[in-house]
Specification:
The complex is a heterodimer. By secondary structure, chain A is α+β, with helices and mostly antiparallel strands. In chain A, 43% of the residues lie in helices and 20% in strands. In chain A, a hairpin with a 4-residue loop joins strand 1 and strand 2. Chain B has one domain (2-185). Classes of the chains: A alpha+beta, B mainly alpha.
Chain lengths: 205, 191
C-alpha cells in the first residue's frame, strides 16, 4: 500500500523534523543568532577569558583582575559614527545613573575596542572625552593581542562586519559580567533607565 | 525535464557542487545575504535535484514505493527548507564550520534530492500546493526582510537584508506569474 507507507514516512518525518526545528530554534524562541546568544548566556553563562588589555591611560589590565566586581562591557571602535556614538553616550549616562555602585567600586564600565590597530590609548581617551566621561568607573581599553581580541569576540558572541565604507557594523549591546567573571546577561542598548535598573537589581540580589 | 538527460546529470551535479565548494565562490556567495539565500542555496538544491535523475532505477523504485504522488518528498523538502530559512541558520552557516558542512550536505540531500525524485511523481494538486506554499513563503519572508528595522543576521548588513527582501518579493511575483500563465494557457497532463 504505497499510500499507507507514504503516510507513515511523512508522519515520521514530520515528528523528526518538528523535533529538529524545536531544537534549532530553542523551542521556537530564537529565530535569529542574536536572540540565541542572549538565551544561551542566560541559560549557561560563559566564563570571560583572562585577556590582557591596555587602557586609555596606557595601563595594563587583565580582565580576570576585574573579578569581584560587576562589569558592564560594550564593544566599540572609536571611529564609529553610528551605534558606538549611542553606546558611548550611554556609558556616560550610566556613570550618572549608577553613581552609587560605581563609587563603592562594586561596578565597572568597560568599553573594549575591536579595532585595536587604530584605537591607541590616546584615541580611547579622546573617545571618552567626546562623551564627557565623568572620569570614574569607565575604562576604555584595547586587547593587547589579536588572539585575545578573537577570544573576547568569540566568548561574548560579537560579530563585526565591514560596512563597505571603511567602518564596521556589529551587534551592539551591553554585556553584564558578574563578580565571578561570568557573562550572565546581554541587554539592548538604547535604554539606559532599564539597563541601570537591571544592574542595580542584579547587584542587590 | 531532468529525466531526459540522466547520463549527464551526475557529472553536472558534481561539477556544480565542486564549483560551489571553491573558497572564492564560497567567499563571494556568502559575503551577501541575498547571494547566499537566493543563489547559493538554490544552486545546492539544484545539485540535489540532478542527483535524483541519476539514482539507479532499483533504488529509485524502492523510494517511490514510500513516496506516493511525491508527498513524502514534499514533506522532507519543506521541513529541511524551513530550517534553512531561519536567519539563525544562514548566520551560523557563515560563522560555524560545522553548520557550513551541514548546509553543503543537507541542502542537496534533504531538499534537492527529494524534490528531484518527487517532482515527476507529483500530480497537479500536489504541485499546486508546493508552488503556493513557495510563493506565500517568498512573500511573507520578503516582506519581513524588507521592513524589519533590525538586522536578522549578525553577519549581514541591513541594506543587504532589505535587498534580499525585495528580491524575494520579485521572485515570488515571478513564480506566481509563471503559475498564472500556466493555468491560463498551459496544458495539463492527467496523471
Amino acid at each position: 500500500m504505497p499510500i499507507l507507507r507514504t503516510l507513515l514516512a511523512s508522519g515520521l518525518l514530520l515528528v523528526l523534523g518538528g523535533a529538529a526545528l524545536t531544537v534549532a530554534t530553542d523551542g521556537f524562541q530564537a529565530f535569529t543568532s542574536e536572540t540565541a546568544r542572549r538565551l544561551a548566556v542566560r541559560r549557561d553563562p560563559p566564563l570571560v577569558p583572562a585577556v590582557l588589555l591596555e587602557t586609555q591611560s596606557g595601563a595594563r589590565l587583565n580582565l580576570a583582575d576585574l573579578r569581584g566586581r560587576w562589569v558592564l562591557v560594550d564593544f566599540v571602535y572609536t571611529r564609529c559614527l553610528s551605534w558606538c556614538l549611542a553606546l558611548g553616550g550611554e556609558f556616560a549616562q550610566l556613570q550618572d545613573q549608577l553613581d552609587a555602585p560605581l563609587a563603592e567600586d562594586k561596578l565597572v564600565l568597560l568599553s573594549i575596542s575591536f579595532d585595536p590597530a587604530h584605537d591607541t590609548p590616546a584615541e580611547l581617551s579622546a573617545y571618552q572625552e567626546r562623551f564627557r566621561s565623568r572620569g570614574h568607573g569607565w575604562i576604555a581599553a584595547r586587547p593587547m593581542s589579536d588572539e585575545g581580541s578573537r577570544q573576547l569576540l568569540r566568548t561574548f558572541g560579537v560579530t563585526v562586519v565591514p560596512d563597505g565604507m571603511g567602518g564596521y557594523v556589529h551587534n551592539a549591546a551591553i554585556h553584564v559580567v558578574d563578580p565571578q567573571g561570568r557573562l550572565v546577561r546581554i541587554l539592548d542598548s538604547g535604554n539606559t533607565q532599564t539597563v541601570a535598573q537591571t544592574v542595580r537589581d542584579d547587584i542587590e540580589r | 525535464m531532468i529525466a531526459h538527460w540522466p547520463r549527464l546529470a551526475p557529472s553536472t551535479a558534481a561539477v556544480l557542487f565542486a564549483a560551489l565548494l571553491l573558497p572564492p565562490a564560497r567567499a563571494w556567495l556568502e559575503g551577501r545575504m541575498s547571494l547566499q539565500m537566493l543563489v547559493q542555496i538554490p544552486l545546492l538544491i539544484g545539485t540535489g535535484c540532478l542527483l535524483g535523475g541519476a539514482l539507479p532505477p532499483r533504488i529509485a523504485a524502492g523510494i517511490a514505493r514510500w513516496n506516493h504522488h511525491g508527498i513524502t518528498s514534499l514533506v522532507l523538502a519543506t521541513l529541511a527548507g524551513m530550517f534553512w530559512m531561519l536567519p539563525r541558520s544562514l548566520d551560523a552557516a557563515v560563522s560555524e564550520p560545522w553548520m557550513a558542512f551541514a548546509k553543503f550536505t543537507s541542502v542537496p540531500l534533504l531538499i534537492g534530492l527529494p524534490l528531484g525524485l518527487g517532482w515527476p511523481r507529483m500530480g497537479f494538486v500536489v504541485r499546486g500546493v508546493f508552488l503556493l506554499e513557495l510563493i506565500a513563503t517568498f512573500f511573507r519572508l520578503g516582506w519581513l526582510y524588507l521592513v524589519s528595522p533590525v538586522r536578522l543576521c549578525n553577519n549581514y548588513l541591513l541594506d543587504d537584508q532589505q535587498r534580499s527582501g525585495m528580491a524575494m518579493l520579485v521572485i515570488g511575483g515571478l513564480v506566481l506569474a509563471g503559475v498564472a500563465i500556466k493555468l491560463v494557457w498551459g496544458r495539463f497532463d492527467r496523471q
